[in-house]
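fyi for ur records
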Amino acid sequence: MIGEFVPDALAEDLPTPVFIFGGIDLDIRWLNQMSEEWLGQSARAVLGRSLTDYLRAADDIISAAKRCEQNQTAVSLRGFIVMRRDAADERCHITLFPTQGRIGMMISLLATQPNDTKSNELAVSAMGRMLAHEIKNPLAGIHGAAQLLSDDVTSDEGRALIKLIASETDRIRRLTDRMETLGDRNPENLSLVNIHEVLRDARKLVQSSSEHDIVFSESYDPSLPETLGDRDTLMQAILNVIKNASEAIMTTEDAGEIKLETAFRAGVSRKMPSGAKGPGLPIEIRVIDNGPGIPATIRDQIFQPFVTNKPSGQGLGLALVAKVTAAHSGLVEVQSRPGKTVFSILLPMLTEEDQS
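which gave:
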């Protein structure tokens, strides 16, 4: 640390890059751990240098820093394209603010799902009707075959796999019965959902079906409460995100790793259709992979239907994730760079009204 700036412990632990500059020339006096990861440089190498050394263009940030210093008020750059010298361009929200006689800057790297539009509603609803029609007949055959196999299988492992097949076909059947109403705002069959149980079940399914060795690690916050939701659709959304991560890893030669995490995240809410601030979304589910990252050309559109970079992909999985999350009054976010992609699903807590 250079100078007398004393960072707050909270700033060090924030899951988003935070910088403290000495002045409008953006000379870095302090940065948190997420800033080091974002720049790919240690604090020792960065302190004393200007942020402009790491950017291809910084005029707008410097102008915002001047307004911040002159008016002693926070200045925001919404939807700003950050152009780093050694990384793909990223769309971010930047906030500069006065602090202890210096200028602070917070960068939100999260490419949040686009606001729901009528065209997206119609596209996802049409997708649901199409999939429901195509899935029901072969699904009945799979369920019937599993029942026939159960009479001939005697090992415990075999019976467990048949039980998994039967339970999954039942879950998919329930989903197909509801696919025609995917465009609806509210989920059906609401109940208390333990997101940790859902994550563990989804992880088992991906592990059992993957042809590649992927190392899974789990780090869950045991203090998180249950949420009110539709377990089947939440399961499908989380399963889609984990499968997406596993498929991304398969395109690299490095050892694949997927981290499943949960945490309490304060200060995030979804904007209501009226423009008012919605309830908080403190329950965070994170799926982190060490794959190649999401191409910058589609990063801002990946939650829209039919957007994909997979040769055989249909671009429907993440659209369904966004739809299910929105139906639960939540948000889905993504931040991505080569070697690290983080999908976050944010859900509300139970209210007193929900519990009554």
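The chain is about 40% helix and 25% strand. thats all i got for now
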